[in-house]
Structures are given as structure tokens and as C-alpha cells.
Amino acid sequence: MAKQKFIDAVRGKRTETAPWVPYAGMHCAFVINEPADKYLQDPQILAKGLVETAKKYKADGIPLIFDLSVEAHSVGCELKWWPDNVPSVTTHPCSDKTPAEAGLQMPTKDSGRWPVIFEAARIAKPQLDELDCGLIGGLCGPLTLASHLAGVRIFTDVIKNKEFAASVCEYAGKVGALSAQFYAEMGCDVIAIIDPVASQIRSATFQEFVTPNVSAAINAIHDAGKTSTFFICGDATKVLKDVCALNTHGFAIDEQLNMNFVRDLAKESGKGFGGNLKLTLALSLGLLSPREDAIVSLAAGGHVGYTFAPG
Amino acid sequence: MADKITIDVLTLDSVQCAACGYMMESIAALPDDIQDMIQYSEWSIKNKEGIGKFIEMKGKVLPTIAIEGDLVFESIIPQYEELIDEMAKRAPSEEMKNRLMSLRDEGFDFAKIAENLKKAGAGLKTKAG
To answer: In this complex, how many residue pairs, one in chain A and one in chain B, have their CB atoms less than 8 Å apart?
Structure first.
């Protein structure tokens, strides 16, 4: 296990071998045989699952949690809990009003599940340090949080009602910056801005509503001396140049992208990159051999700035 | 001839994947008058039925919204008007097409999302097997 190797790779540096980072998320609950809803609300159980999973997979880095409802919940969105999955956001306070009109405040360390996450980090961090495993803090990116706040209308508003969309995305960006500060304070080594729905828009929309609203979080990460990365899901081909133009140290993608295309773009931009292991096709469904997929990914990723991780 | 427009949403899992969730919500938040004209389902590739549908429809990326068998929105969450236009193009009758176009300025309605998502089986068939 090698935390520094992981940090170096995210920063685009050459590493002797590729660091290995399982984005374990709810799988940590499965590893210790606990239901997801209980796991995410109990700091002792969360810390236990995290450390056990890091040990089991000999991880060089691992996310503290991988749950994009944390920020939405902390500002008042209601959740539906599932025993085998992350919670879903079920209410959208900005479905017919701006954050200011809806009276949304900035979250504090006492809002929503932040106390659980702070406590879990306090318990797990020394144990992960002992294992030489890096800790990743993952915050909800501005467009995904804007979707949670306003619902699916945000994807129409970014075209038809730009002023409203800007007010929601700007608020989401400020909440994200606060999350970045929280994760830095918890001692996370790498802080990821996770914006999966940012792959579901056009490049011009990304530049108008995502780019300006991640800069505060990136600055907060860098001001704290931490390493920054941007996670995007889905077929992000159309916005990947925009992702590379962000001021983060690195980025991560999912299994739907072509690894050679991603690697070349990352190298041009001097960014670290990771992801792309076939999470569904190989690890979940077994339609591809996970071993062969891993070999192909390692060969394509190389030794410069590459993190071996699921997509 | 079918009296409803068939919409299939190909997903990883609308609970776990935010993009998939908002693809589903774009259909579930269509107003009542449009709900009467459509029938829709989530097809998660975490189960065999969903994999079968993905292959049958020649899906390329997730998430995707297919309307009447055409892969229309592939990794693009649609605007309200785009959805109406694409449904109207594939409406089984002139009458339905005109009804859809008359609702083009209506906008999303969030009142019955939970009920509509449940009806479509969203999040209920996302286990591998």
C-alpha cells in the first residue's frame, strides 16, 4: 500500500507502478455484512467497513464515502434510503424557486450527515495511515448538486432560463467549496469533485455552468495543500477537453471511454488520470474477464499519472 | 396500432447513478396529460432482462432514452421541449402529435414523480441476477 504513489499519480507524475484505488463505496458495507442505510449513518460501522475494505483489497487509496446525496441532504433535500445502495434524493427545494427564494442556507459541520462523516474520518484516518493508504474525500459537483436541488428542469434551464440555472449552480458551487474545506479538515489526502451528470450536457453548457462553479472548491483544496481531482461518469467524450481545462491536478472517468483517448488527452494537459476498469461488464456482470480487462487497462494507462481504478 | 408511445430508459441503475436517475426523472416529471400518452420502463443492466434489452436495442452508452425503439438521447439529459419534439415525431397518430405539441410550453411537473417512478419500476430491478 502506497499513499504517496497515489498522490503522485493524481498529480500527473511518473510512478514505478500504477497505484490501485478501489472506489469501494457501498461495497465497504457489503464487505462487513452491513446494510447500506445503517452503514452510512453510523460512524463506527462506516470506519470499520472502510478500513476492512482497504486491507482486503490492499488499496493505495480509498474514498471515505461515495455518496452524492450528502450535500443535498445537508441543505434540506429529503432522501429515500435503500438497504443495498446509496440514498436517492426525493425532493427538490429549488424546483420552482431559486436557492435564495427557497431560503437555503450554507451547511455547517452539524448539518445532515456531516457529523457522521467527520467522526468516521477521525476513527479511520489513523488506521489508514498505518496501512499507508490515502484517504479520498468526494464532494458533490455543482451540476449534480444543482440537479438534486432543482430536479431535472435544470437541464432545460441551462438553455432556456440561464439566470435561474446560474443561481442554482452558483449556490451548489459554494456548498461544494465548503465540503472541500470539511474534507481537508478531516485529513483527506486527495479531494475529488464528483460531477457525474456533467457528462450529460454539451461542451458549451459545461463551460458556462460547471467550469466557473468548481473553481472555489479547487481553490479550497489547493489552499489546504491537498491534491485535487474531478470525477466524471458516463460517456464524457464530448466534455473531456473541458474537464482537462479545469485547474485540478487530475481527473477520473468511467468504463465507457476509450482509455487511449483519455491517456493522450491527460498527457497533453499534464493531468493525472484514472478509472476505466469495466465495473459493470467485468466486475459486476462477468461478461468480460476482469483479469484481461485489468491487463489491458494497465498497458494503456502506463506509468505516468495513471491510477488503476474501476470506472 | 399502439395507442401509447413506448419509452425505454437504459440505465446502469437509476438509484446509484445520478445521470441515470435524472434520465428517468425527465420522463417521470412529464405532466399528467403526457403521462396518459406514454408507457415507460427502466432497464438496468444490473439484471439479465436489462442486459437483454440493451443488446436488443443495440444500445451503445448508458444512460440512453429510446423512444419507439429509436436511441434518441444517448448520454444527454434532454430538455423538456426536446423530449416533446422527439415524442411528437414518433406519435402513432396526428391527433396525438398535435396534443403533444400543444403541451410544448407546459414544462415539467414534479408533483407525482415518486408515483410515476414506482410505476416505471425505477430502482426496483437493479440487483445482478
So the answer is: 98
